[in-house]
Each structure stands twice: as C-alpha cells, then as structure tokens.
Amino acid sequence: MTADPEGSREPRVWGDDSARAGGRWNWRRVRFIPLAAGAGALIWGLQMGLIRLGWDLPGSAGAALHGPLMICGFLGTLISLERAVAVGRSWAYAAPAACAAGAVALATGHETWAHAAILLASLWLTMISIWLCLRMPALFAGLLAIGAATWVVGVILWALGHPMTVTAGWWLTFLVLTITAERVELSRVMRPPWWTTIVLTLGAGLVLLGAARGELAQSTGYAMGAGLLIMTLSLLRFDVARVTIRQRRQVRFSAVCMFTGYFWLATAGLGLALGLQASWIHGYDAAVHAIGIGFVLSMVFAHAPIILPAVAGVRLAYTALLYAPLTILHASLVARIAGDLLESFAARKAGGLLTAVAIATYAIVLLAATVWPRERRSILPRAIRAPAD
Amino acid sequence: MMDPDIVGALKDIVDPELGIGIVDLGLVYRAAHTPAGVEVIMTMTSPSCPMSEVLVAQVHGALRRRFPDSVHDVQLTWEPPWSPARITAAGCAQLGWRKTARADAARSSWPARLLKSLVRH
Questions:
Q1: Exposed, middle or buried, B46 (CB in 10 Å: 0-12/13-18/19+)?
Q2: Is the dihedral of CA A166, A172, A178, A181 positive or negative?
Q3: Which of A9, A209, A306, B57 has a Cα at 20 to 30 A from A203?
Q4: With an 8 Å Cβ cutoff, is A79 touching chain B?
Q5: Minimal Cα–Cα distance from A169 to chain B, Å?
Q6: Neighbours of A379 (CB within 10 A)
Q7: Facing residues of B31 across strands?
Q8: pLDDT digits (tens, 9 = 90+) for A191-236
Q9: Which pLDDT score is estimated for B25?
Q10: Nearest partner of A35 among A363, A325, A258, A291, judged by Cα
C-alpha cells in the first residue's frame, strides 16, 4: 500500500457525517416521491412534445409546457435529488420536494404555483451548490453553483413571460454546466494539466454570455457556440471516459454514452457558431434538441443505472441490451435534425416518436434486466438473448 | 493505519462510475482493528458525489462477511479532502499513468512552478 503522499494528516470525522456513515435506510423510501413526480413529468413532457410535432394525443392545451416539464419537472427534480442525497442532510431535500411539487403543478395546469415551486427549488439547489463549493472549493464545484444559478435565471424569465427561446438558453446552460461539472469532478483522476481550468472557465463564460444574449433565438450564436466547442474539446481530451471505454459492461456503456453525447454537443456548438440556427427554419429546434437529446439524454442513459440505486436504493442490473435504446435515441435525433435541415415534417415527426420509443425501451430493458436476471434468461429464444458484452 | 486484512476485505468494492476499487482510488484513509472492533474511515472523491451511502453500505457488507463476529464502525470524512495524489500505484496503472514522485511534482500548482522558474532565471 502506497504511503499517504500528503503527509500524516489524521482524518477528522464530523458528527453529521459519521452518523450518515451508518446509513439512514428508512429515508430512502421517501425519495420515491420526487422520483415518481420526475418520471411523471418526463412522460407528460414527452407527450406534450409529440403533440407539438403533430401527433394526435390528449392534452394539447399544455403542449407549450414541453420544455418546462422536461427540463424543470424531470431533469431539475433528478439533479436536485442527486445533490440532496450527496449532501445527506434533511434540509437539502427541500429542493427536490419543491421541484416535484412544481412538476405536479405544471402537469395539472397550475402554472403560477409551478413557477413559485420551481423557483424555490432552483434557489435551494443554488444554495446547496454554494454550500458544497465552500466545503470543497474547486472548479467543478464552482461550475455546479453557476449552473444552478442559471436555472434560477431561466425560471425567473419564464415566470415573467419571456419567450421560451430565451429561457431555453439559460436552462440548457444549467444542464450543460451541471453535466460538465460532474465530468470534470470524475476526470480529476486523469490529472489534467493546470491550464484546463482556464480553458473550461473560458468555455463556461462564453456559454453564459451566449445565454445572456439569447443567442439560441438570434441570427448568430458565436459566444454560445464557441463556448460549447471549447468545453467539448477540453472534456474530450481529458475525460476519464477515454480510460473507462476500455473496461467492460456498465462502465464501458457509460463511456460510450459520454462520447456520443460529446459528439452532439460539439455539433450543436459548431452549428450555433456558424449561425445555422438562423439560416434553417427549424435551426432553433435542431440546436435545442442536439443538446437536450443528444447530450443530456445520453448522460441520463449513462448514469441512470448508477444514480438510481444511489438515490432510490433500488438494485438495477446492467445488460448489453441497453445499447439498443441508446442506438434508437441517436437515430431519432438524426431523423429529427435531418427533418429540420430538409424541412421534412414527416422526418421530424418520426424522430420525435423514436425518441419517446428510445426512452420507453430503455426503461423497459433496465426493468427487465433487473427483474429477470441473467441466469434465468436461458429460457428465452436464442434470437433475443442478450449478446455477450 | 491500514490493516492488510481489512483492506483485503474492501478490495472488491468498486466505484461504479470509474470501475476502479475504492482502495486503489485512495478513498480508504484508515482501516484498523480497535478494542471496540473494526474501524474504517473513508471519504468520497467529492462532497457532491451521491454514491456515499451505497459505498458505505458495501463497506459494511464486506466487513460483515469478513469479520462476522466484530463490531464495525465505518465513518465518512471530508478532512483531509481527497485528491488524485492519493490514488495507489495499482489505481494509476488502471488509469494508464505511472505514479512517480516526478509525476506528482509535474502536477504541482502552476503558481509555485512559475515562481520557481522565475527565481531560477
């Protein structure tokens, strides 16, 4: 065993942390409530998205809430819950609780209550993130706090009635900075050189500038596009996924999801930097969904089997069949962006449906792999047995 | 203090995101037999990581299997904070870099190195 390279500092255990070490198992069941609300927001948000693409489904009055449901109701709840679990203090759970309440309010048509609840959730998450930053000052902690603050800005703009094209820029910045922070935190094991701090800070700053300028809806997206490109290239160079892709099973699957996500993030950055969101009629749709589906949902696919057990205490089993919904997800985005580029309504409509199919398939495959473990899978016909990974 | 028996019991506990053991990552600060039983003090790579409950539970489970007749005390700490310098040589090998004093020095803070280079010149 290598000697402690940092000298003989004795570890100090704080009261709250040592109590947490024993595990408060009974509280984990309560976490199912915000998880269920988040899942409900995801399903309802997908339905609203399909309605916006022209599918004839019930609930058309709420179609404009697709963005808030997906970003605030689903992803906001998930991120808040993850952070609350990390903090391990009961006060931290106010964020996911408020977000879950906001998601329910959104889905039931109480928009004013939803504004208030989600604003509270975003403010609480920002406070939690600042607390974490003070506990361990580091680039990733700073990015988490700034990301949470951009969620607050977006919610305020949404509540004040600003166009969704402007609000979406802030909300996507929240997601991009949050995920980037988590990757930077993990990738510290790669010991990146000191100048990556400067590069990532520059990239984050440019993305923030782009959000502030409302570049998603403008004719030029130089700042946001350049910022996304800079961050993606830096992450690609030093992400630990470069190592973990050589591992097996779940770890490799996560790495594959990461790289496909980076591809779409870079594509969105390049498109924005070239001002393509203005030259295509549906350029805004392409940019938003390249980031939201290609990058963010890829990350969700990568981490759900890891985070759900941590957050909800459920045991999930990995299966190589998960590559199927991942493939469908990216195929759906290709179809959608091709439809945006070629102004093909049918391709956009099909792409949207395929995205919903990908998410549903992912959930079903994960559940099936958990409920039906490998040793009993031999009764399946050979054609649909899981391929060896 | 790192008792080899206790460390051996924890060797198979893996960080699920990195696929590397918590011992190789340097997350275990102390593993010792005490008059009360078995004591493990560990940390996570950062306070924002939600995996602490799961990993602590796995440590409890591993200790129960290895030392069924002992009382186990598993504590989580953030002092001193974890850093990549704590990764063991085996962990470094899995990550594809060699752990040497020179590698550690090359990653020291840039203000310190800048100052040293200015003084040298």
A1: buried
A2: negative
A3: A306
A4: no
A5: 25
A6: 7
A7: B2, B40
A8: 899 899 999 999 999 999 999 998 887 767 789 999 999 999 999 9
A9: 94
A10: A363
Q: What is the mean pLDDT of the segment spanning A291-308?
A: 94
- pLDDT reported for residue A17: 41
Please name every residue paired with B76 in a beta bridge, in sequence order, or none if there are none: B42
Dist. CA A100–CA A75, nearest whole Å: 11
Q: Residue B30's closest chain A neighbor by CA?
A: A11
Residues from chain B that touch A132, judged by Cβ atoms under 8 A, are 46-48
Task: Determine the residue of chain A that is closest to B52 in CA distance.
Answer: A86
Report the pLDDT value the prediction gives residue A12, as an integer from 0 to 100. 53
Residues A345-357: b if buried by 16+ CB within 10 A, e if exposed = eebbbbbbbbbbe
Pairing of strands B37-42, B72-76: parallel
- Decide: residue A111, CB within 10 A, 0-12 exposed, 13-18 middle, 19+ buried: middle
Contacts of A11 (CB under 8 A, 6+ apart): B29, B30, B41, B43, B77, B79, B80
B43 touching A (Cβ < 8 Å) = yes
Q: Please indicate whether, in this complex, the C-beta atoms of B95 and A14 are within 8 angstroms of each other.
A: no
Strand partners, B20: B15
CA distance A272 to chain B (A): 31
The answer to whether A244 faces chain B, any CB pair under 8 Å, is yes
Closest CA to B71 of B79, B82, B60, B81: B60
CA distances from A320 to A302, A364, B12, B23 (A): 12, 13, 22, 28
* Residue B118: other Cβ atoms inside 10 A: 8
Q: Which two tokens stand for residue B87?
A: 């990764």
| CB-CB contact of A265 with A295 (8 Å) | yes
Q: Where are the alpha helices (DSSP H) in A239-248?
A: 241-244
Side chain identity, residue B117: S
In the predicted model, residues of chain B with pLDDT beneath 70 are 98-121
Q: CA angle, corner A201, sides to A196 and A205, nearest 5? A: 150
**Number of C-beta neighbours around residue B60 at 10 A:** 17
Q: Quick one: tokens of A213?
A: 């300028």
Rounded distance, CA A169 to CA A175, Å?
Answer: 10
| pLDDT greater than 70 at residue A151 | yes
DSSP assigned state of A9: P
Work out the minimum CA distance from B75 to partner chain A, whole angstroms: 5
Position B120 scores a pLDDT of: 41
Q: Residue A361 region, left (φ>0) first, then alpha (ψ -120 to 50), else beta?
A: alpha
**Does residue A383 have a pLDDT over 50?**
no
Name the token pair of B77: 């700490």
Residue of A294, A296, A298, A304 lying closest to A369 (CA atoms): A304
